[in-house]
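Annex B. Sample input.
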Amino acid sequence: MKSVLITGADKSIGFETARQLLRKGYYVYLGSRDPQKGLKAVEQLKSEGLTNLETIQIDVTDDDSVKNARLAVGQKTNVLDVLINNAGINGGTPQTALAASIDQFKAAYETNVYGVVRVTQAFIDLLKNSPEPRIVNVSSSQGSLALHSDPNYKYYPFKGAVYHSSKAALNMYTINLAYELRDTPFKVNAVSPGFIKTDFNNHRGTGTVEEAGKRIAKYAVIDQNGPTGKFFCEETNPETGEIPW
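Annex B, continued. Sample output.
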C-alpha cells in the first residue's frame, strides 16, 4: 500500500485530498498543526469507512515539530511515496505592495515557502526509498508572474503582494527541486487547486473542495510517464492543465 503525508490536512482542501487518496487505496498520514483537530478529521474519515490513516502532529513553521513528525512517521515506515505540501496561509490584510507590513511577509513566507522547504528536506530520505516518489506543492495561479503581468488574465486586477509573491517563491523552489531530482524516479510539480470556496478566502471561491482535491490527487498518483517540473491549474487551462510560471 502506497503512503502519503499531507500537511494542513485537517480541513478544507487538504482534508478532501486525503479523502480522495484514501479512496484510491493510499495510506494517509494526515498532517495537522493541532492534534485535536487532526484526531477529529481522522474520526470523520473513519466514519465514512476510510480507515487507512492516522494523524501526524506537524507545524511546518517549527523546526522541532517537523523533526518530531519525521521521527513519528519513521517509526512506522521507512518508505513514503508521496508528499503533498498543502499547508498555507494568505498573509492577512492589507495585501498591497506599499501598505503590507514586513511581519505579514515574514509570516506568509514562513508557512508557504520555508515550511515547504523544512518538510521536504526532512522527509526526502523516506521519499527516496519509494520506487515512484511524488512531491506535490500546492501553489496558486496567483503566483504566476506571466499571468499576473497579462492585463487579459481574468484575475489580473486581483493583486496580493504578500500571498502572491510567496507562491511565486514556492514555484521557483519547485522548479529547482524538480531540476535537482531530474535523473531520479521523482515527479515534482506545483498544482493550483483553483479559486475554491473555503474559509481561506471567506468562501468567496467559485469551485468546490471536491474539485480541488481531485486536481491535487491527480498529480500525486501520476505514473513514470507523468510530468515533472511543471505548473498546473485546471481551472485556468482545462485542456492540458499546464500554465506558465
